[in-house]
Amino acid sequence: MKDLGMAPSKITLHGSEISGHTHRVELMLRMLDLQYRFVSCPPQTRQTAEFLSMNPLGQVPVLQDGDVTLADSNAILVFLAKRYGVGKGWLPEDAVSAALVQRWLSIAAGEIAAGPNLARLIRIRGMAADYARAVAIAERILRYMNQHLERRTYLAAAHPTIADLACYSYVAMAGEGDISLEAYPAVRAWLRRVETVPGFKAMPASPPFRG
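The structure corresponding to this sequence follows.
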């Protein structure tokens, strides 16, 4: 694991610079104006005893905050919103908005992961998977998101929530999976709104696959 040497902090984020799951957590940390240390974990390090002691599934991201160690990006978003974002709207308290946030977290882990994310992994990493099926899932969820966002500013509330951060990264990078956003103007406008939130940091482009 490569330590990028940021300022000392009790928060450490273990992840990959080109992982959308990591990126959504990094966005939350930055938008909450929290200092953190980033440790880059390429795939070959994720099966080491050191890493597996933090996440036995061998997946990034992993967040360490004092004596708390958490895996799963959406769980980490909830943790950060509840510990550091109380009163800031990232995880609304009212029942309807909280339910909508959960719905979009499920979509991020479901259709967005199996659609835009998987299509991207097939293209940039040569992953052996059904590209046509990934594209079909991506197009279906993007049509739904576009229809939803024609009537809303953000996904779950009138302001940004963790739902927007959970869904942003892989939708923004859909082009790396050869999925165009041209037909989804409301989605493109939503991406631009997320990009204006203070603390935003773009996810870097992935290196080309050499199979």
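Residues 1-8 have pLDDT under 50 and may be disordered.
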